[in-house]
Amino acid sequence: MVLLEHPLHGAGGREAGPAAAGPGARGRGLVPGLSLSRSLSQQQQPRLGRRDFRLVSSLATTRKTAGRGWSIRALGHLAGARPRVGPARAVPSCMLGCAAAAAGTSSPPRCRSRALFRLTAVSDPECSGFWLKQSAYREQPTVRFRYEVLFVATLGPGPGSLLAWSTFPAFNRLQEDRLRVPLLSTREEDKNQDGKMDLLHFKLELPLQPTEHVVGVQLILLFSYHLYRMSTFVMQSMAFLQFFSPVPESQLSMNGDLKLNQRQLLHHCGLDTRYNVSVVNGTSPFASDYDLTNIIAAYWDRNVTTVFSDPNPLWMTGRATDAPFIINATIRYPVEVILYPLKTA
Predict the structure, then answer these.
(1) In DSSP terms, which residues pair with 237 in a beta bridge?
(2) pLDDT in tens, 19-70
(3) Looking at the predicted structure, is the pLDDT value of residue 129 above 70?
């Protein structure tokens, strides 16, 4: 509950009515009995202290935005005391409502000295911002490709009809005759020359036998992801690219964003390195640690991740017998809206 005390009488010991507030004061969210700052300077300023007049003027200027979702109700009248203003407190404009409109009357309350008002909330989702517990800011993350890749190409419906390769030697040793080493080329680009990379150009060329045809691909690319503006947040993240088609392909092109996904607010200060661990345990000798189902399940257990969003895949057919299968991917690093908790006293 917020208490405001304000003198309602005007010059000559009479209360300031609608006329003192000027035409059009009703319906603008003004407290009945409050004059506009212009009228106050002419009629009521001599009766108010400098601090009182400053608050009254501030309240009067909220007439265009006030009155939605809140109402002001008079609790009673106090007499025989010097007019003063209560504790200085910032009051959102959405909390100032028209008491006369809320009460269904057209005339302000009658009093000889001053009135004590209580701001009472009503249920209105459009009136917000009074008890904020979180806030947001915009920041472009510092993202760098770690040159760590795990790639699986599906050749047919059979369980062993696949080719695989990664930058992890333990994974490659497990593939035996299914291992096929592709040709990779990558390039990160800083388009606006601000010192932060804006996108990654990734190209993979997989050599195939004339009888081999790719009908699906699964690709994991690993990144370092840093935020610095509020807290220093350091994470190792991934982009997962996947596509399948009943028709054999010669080339797959994708173009999308590496988007931040928050299920938890980030800290507003300090160093946060809880997710600065590799997404893939590249030193493990166990095949289960390289199973894509287990990798993705463990990754999504995190509260902060990145996802490859809006990939817009373009599937091209008609591969020549001696031509490789090609993946072209452009991954952009956009500006993000970061959510964080407000600092409490």
Answers:
(1) 223
(2) 444 444 444 444 444 433 343 444 444 444 444 434 444 444 444 444 444 4
(3) no
3-state secondary structure of 102: helix
If we measure between CA atoms, which residue out of 176, 224, 215 comes closest to residue 317?
A: 215
Q: Which amino acid is at 221?
A: L
Angle at 303 between CA 127 and CA 167, to 5 degrees: 145
Helices (H), the chain: 18-21, 37-39, 50-60, 99-103, 169-175, 292-299
| Segment (H or E) for 120 | strand 114-121
Q: What is the pLDDT of residues 212-230, one digit of tens each?
A: 999 999 999 999 999 999 8
The residues near 172 (Cβ < 8 Å, ≥ 6 apart) are 165, 166, 179
Q: Please give the helix or strand (H or E) that residue 274 lies within, else none.
A: strand 271-275
Measured CA to CA in angstroms, residue 183 lies from 10, 121, 123, 129, 247 at distances of 86, 65, 61, 54, 24
- Listing DSSP states for 277-336 in one string gives S-SS-TT---GGGG-HHHHHHHHTTSSEEEEEE----EEE----TTPPEEEEEEEE---E
**CA dist 35 → 30, 41, 77, 102, 328 (Å):** 8, 9, 19, 19, 68
For residue 327, count other CB atoms closer than 10 A to its CB: 23
The pLDDT of residue 332 is above 60? yes
Helix, strand, coil percent content, the chain, rounded in steps of 5: 15, 40, 45
